[in-house]
Amino acid sequence: MIFCIQSYLQFLWHSKNEHGVHSPFVYSLLTKCFYKKASLAHHSFDLKLSPKKERLLNKIYHYFKFKNCVFYTPEIAIDNTILEVDLIYASLDSVEKIEPFIESLFSKTHNDTCFIFNNIYRNPVTALAWKKIIRHPRFTVTIDTYLFGIAFIRREQEKEHFTIRT
pLDDT tens across 67-112, in order? Predict the structure, then answer.
């Protein structure tokens, strides 16, 4: 519990809104997705998320219009039938070793694939896994929203990390 409080206070200290972002891609994501009022369209992911996380995940899902999604939680196994994936959702507390897990998924990705990681601050182990994801060379854009860690493969963009209030 103390870890969660400390990590949230650090997040608040370092986080910015759209005015602190100089990436056109991330600025557009913030203004047209994160900070936009939720539309009536709702996709049920059946991931047992809090209402706030469910709303944010829905906004992201509808903003990018993902076609092929893979969800990895302890209750949901990876769908190996999909060859190329637009969205990969994973709960970090269900991934024992993050590097082999991510490397196994890269064969299914393309430029613009989005990874969304849940529980990035559940404990020191998940926070460390999130830091490894941020440093991974294949991810060029990473966004810490405290609710989720979001990582993009965008070859056309310089590597950059954002800490964003949602």
Answer: 988 888 656 666 666 678 999 998 887 677 788 888 888 888 999 9
Q: What is the DSSP string of 65-92?
A: T-SSEEEESSSS---TT-SS-SEEEEEG
Amino acid at 9: L
Tokens 């190329």 sit on residue: 84
The one-character DSSP state at 154 is -
Q: Are 116 and 148 in contact (CB under 8 A)?
A: yes
Integer angstrom CA distances of residue 85 from 27, 93, 121:
24, 22, 25
Q: Which two tokens stand for residue 131?
A: 């830091």
Residues 6+ apart with CB under 8 A from 118: 47, 49, 53, 89, 90, 91, 92, 93, 148
In this prediction the pTM is 0.89
Q: In three state form, how does the secondary structure of 108-127 look?
A: HCCCCCEEEEECCCCCHHHH
Find tokens 């694939």 and name the residue: 113
Determine which helix (DSSP H) or strand (DSSP E) holds 51, and give its type and residue range: helix 51-64
